[in-house]
Amino acid sequence: MSAPDPLIVAEAWAREGRGVALATVVETWGSAPRPAGSALAIDQDGRFEGSVSGGCVEGAVVAEAAEVIASGRPRMLEFGVADEAAWRVGLSCGGRIRVFVEKVG
């Protein structure tokens, strides 16, 4: 059985009246654990479906998504081992990742 599509989940949550953001991997370098196009749906309560990094940066992306939901302004996030935030969020596997976070609905 396959996991639900995060875009479909995000749209369904938005129809329910929840504040929702969609985070999408737009670029990777090196050994980033998820390919471009991978997505994560996040609601205003911090619930999420999908993955942008196999667990490396999901917590940081969920936190940024709360700001995107509140402000309505999209954000481009970048994580990598050359970035001090990499060790804080756990992207020590090598590689870098760029994630675009936008409000849905």
From TrEMBL:
Boundaries of every XdhC- CoxI domain copy: 13-80
Domain of life of the source: Bacteria
InterPro entries named in the record: MoCofactor_Util/Proc, XdhC_CoxI
Pfam family, one: XdhC_CoxI
Coiled-coil ranges per UniProt: none
UniProt-listed PANTHER family: ALDEHYDE OXIDOREDUCTASE MOLYBDENUM COFACTOR ASSEMBLY PROTEIN, MOLYBDENUM COFACTOR INSERTION CHAPERONE PAOD
Protein name per UniProt: XdhC/CoxI family protein
Lineage: Bacteria, Pseudomonadati, Pseudomonadota, Alphaproteobacteria, Hyphomicrobiales
